[in-house]
Amino acid sequence: MGEFDLIERYFTRPARHAVLGVGDDCALLAPASGMQLALSTDMLVEGRHFLSTVNPVHLGHKALAVNLSDLAACGARPRAFLLSLALPRIDEVWLAGFAQGLWALADAFGCELIGGDTTQGPLNISITVVGETPQGQALLRSGAQAGDDIYVSGHLGDARVALEVFRGSLSVPSSVFNAARIRMEQPTPRVALGLALRGIATAAADISDGLLGDLSHILKASQVGATLDSAAALSLLACATEFELPPSKHLQFVLTGGDDYELVFTAPASKRAEVHAAGLIALTRLTRIGQICAEPGLTLLDTDGQPMAHNFVSFDHFA
Ligand code: ADP
Ligand code: MG
């Protein structure tokens, strides 16, 4: 099979909303009037973002999921995506699995594949997503205000539990590992929540590198600080109901675990009812975990509400 047969067999479908999809030099999209395009790209590199042994169905899911998560953080509705693939060789079993996971998620979110690039090389997957938001309504990192509440969607830290088990540095019961592994390999992008939070959240970001790091981006962009309630943070680890981690690891995984693909967002305290309703509409659990303050810096409060010393740091590829 050659490059073009591969593209045709696995990655070509008739265009739906797009004016022109796969097959020409460019794809064509017509943005609806009054809408802005939201664009984001995320790359997955073997050995860095996934293990070579991962099920290709899960990898196809995750490659798109991490990109849809960025659209979710902006409150954008997914429209289309481009897929750039470097493949060491043509492995049809792998390609069929990867395409299956990719198409399933793409269909679930109405996001169509409109083009890409395919080359031979070390396994590397790069997706660019295109979404849309009504003019001026995108959720940004820069809108948090002193006094706002801070919320997190879903659960945090479980993907890290799975990673530590894979690394051999943690041992947990198999039921706990299986659930954590789903969180690591098949994250659910919080697109419905992002859409429901338009006009309610003052700032938002998705959590890919760890809560502390991603919240810090909001604080910096908004020129504010925050206090975080460690008791509320501890409640975010889903597997903690079944298995007790050492307390220091439990908090570390929640705050800096990475690969969570949840949303962290801020909203005025006067909008708690609206935030609650957004969580219900999106069928997504929300936890209020802290507050924005005017003074810069991020303070962690212990279970007695006292500032806590810590040296947690979120993931950084070059640190
Ligand atoms: P060119 O060399 O002119 O840039 P390519 O040969 O790279 O074109 O690609 C041919 C067509 O196939 C283009 O429409 C491109 O967008 C599409 N394409 C290439 N690789 C992929 C892929 N992995 N998934 C979807 N579409 C792809
Ligand atoms: Mg090309």
Characterize the structure shown.
The chain has 319 residues and is of the alpha+beta class. It folds into 2 domains: 3-134, 60s Ribosomal Protein L30, Chain: A; 149-301, Alpha-Beta Complex (Phosphoribosyl-aminoimidazole Synthetase, Chain A, domain 2), CATH 3.90.650.10. The chain is built from 10 helices and 10 strands. The protein has a 6-stranded mixed beta sheet with strand order 6-8-5-9-7-10, sandwiched between helices. It has a 4-stranded mixed beta sheet with strand order 1-4-2-3. Helix 2 runs parallel beside helix 3 and helix 4 (158-167) crosses helix 5 (174-185). The longest helix has 18 residues, at 56-73. The N and C termini lie far apart (41 Å). The model has no long low-confidence stretch (mean pLDDT 96). It binds adenosine-5'-diphosphate (ADP) and magnesium ion. Residues 7, 11, 22-25, 83, 85, 113, 115-118 line the site of adenosine-5'-diphosphate.
